[in-house]
Design goal:
18% helix; 9 strands
C-alpha cells in the first residue's frame, strides 16, 4: 500500500493569528508555530528565497491536521476570487464532524464566520452547513443525528 494516512491540508493565509483563532475556536489544538525558510523548503515547494511562518493544528482525536502558512517572502498571491463559490475548481472546503452544530456556528460567528447557505438536515443522518471564515476559508460542519 502506498498511502499510510493523510497527514495534513495546507492553507496559505495573510493573517495567521486570526485564522489560528478561528480553528482553535472550532476545537482544533495548536500543535506548534514557527518560521520556515532555507534551501530545503525552496527545493520542496519550487520557490526561491522563501521565508514563511507556519502553524500546525490538529483535531482533538489527533488524526486530522491543518497546516497554516503565512508567506513573508515572496508575497502570497491570489489565484481565484477571495470568496469562491462551492463549484469553483480546486479544493473548496474542509469538513469537520461536530457534536453541537448550533453552538459551533455561534462561536465561529464571533470570529467573523458567516453561513454560506443554510443549516440543513439530510434525512435522519446529519445536520450540515458551510461557513465562510477569515480570509474566505470555507469549512463544512456535520452533526450526526441519532
Amino acid at each position: 500500500m502506498a498511502i499510510q494516512r493523510m497527514d495534513n491540508v495546507l492553507i496559505v493565509v495573510d493573517d495567521l493569528d486570526a485564522v489560528i483563532a478561528f480553528f482553535v475556536e472550532l476545537g482544533m489544538e495548536l500543535e506548534g508555530r514557527g518560521p520556515v525558510e532555507g534551501r530545503w523548503v525552496e527545493r520542496v515547494i519550487g520557490i526561491d528565497d522563501v521565508r514563511q511562518e507556519v502553524a500546525m493544528l490538529r483535531t482533538p482525536d489527533g488524526h486530522g491536521k491543518v497546516e497554516l502558512a503565512m508567506f513573508h517572502r515572496p508575497a502570497a498571491i491570489t489565484a481565484e476570487p477571495r470568496n469562491a463559490p462551492a463549484n469553483t475548481l480546486g479544493i473548496r472546503r474542509i469538513m469537520f464532524a461536530v457534536n453541537d452544530i448550533d453552538d459551533v456556528i455561534a462561536r465561529l460567528r464571533g470570529h467573523g464566520a458567516e453561513l454560506v447557505g443554510v443549516l440543513e438536515r439530510y434525512e435522519d443522518a446529519y445536520r450540515l452547513c458551510y461557513v465562510r471564515g477569515p480570509e474566505g476559508i470555507l469549512v463544512g460542519l456535520a452533526e450526526q443525528l441519532g
